[in-house]
Amino acid sequence: MKILMVCLGNICRSPMAEGVLRHLAAVRGLELTIDSAGTSNYHVGDAPDRRARAAMKRKGMDIDSLRGRQVRVEDFHHFDRILAMDASNLADLRDLAPDKAAAAKVRLLLEHAPQLPWREVPDPYYGGEEGFDQVFDMLLTACNGLLDELARPH
Ligand code: 4NP
Fold first, then answer.
1. What is the pLDDT of residues 26-71, one digit of tens each?
2. Packing angle between helix 50-58 and helix 13-28, nearest 10 degrees?
3. Share of the chain above pLDDT 70, in %
4. Helix count and strand count (H, E) for the chain
5. Catalytic annotation on 80?
6. Given this model, what pLDDT does residue 154 score?
7. Pairing of strands 2-7, 33-38
8. Rounded alpha-carbon distances, angstroms, from residue 70 to 40, 57, 63, 74
């Protein structure tokens, strides 16, 4: 199973989601391919935002070595699931998808957290540190929900 997390810049939400899912998969002993990307090219080659790295370190997770990249059409062939942080990312990804099967791989990450009252992970870029902790909690719930779903027999 190959999973791609996507946000706008690939320096806040999606690298955090990648780090959280990597951590949880390792704890469960699951071998998944996990990556993240941005719909924009604003932060290609950049490390995750300092506040995202700090929020992850507070939880014992390290995403310092990740670097920003932009989503590309080949991602729709390589990955089984492409998980968007918000509705804008979802719409951009569906526009980029090369065909219907590819578009169907794209979902909102928070579909895996139906117990939460939100459908989108809010962009924390223009806010304070606390926004990153709130994003972390949402990502933790959704990534656990995703792994629970993958573990269920179909
Ligand atoms: P992200 O946050 O999409 O969660 O990585 C953002 C990072 C940078 C920008 C916007 C959102 N930006 O406009 O530079």
1. 999 999 999 999 999 999 999 999 999 999 999 999 999 999 999 9
2. 30
3. 100
4. 6, 4
5. no
6. 73
7. parallel
8. 6, 25, 17, 11
User: Over the stretch 82-103, which tens digit does the pLDDT of each residue have?
Assistant: 999 999 999 999 999 999 999 9
CA of 69 to the centre of ligand 1 (A): 12
Tell me, what CATH number does 17's domain have? Answer: 3.40.50.2300
The two tokens of residue 141 are 């719930």
CB 13 near ligand 1, within 6 Å = yes
Q: How far apart are CA 105 and CA 18, in angstroms?
A: 17
Domain containing residue 137: 2-151
Domain count, the chain: 1
Say if ligand 1 is within 6 A of residue 9 CB: yes
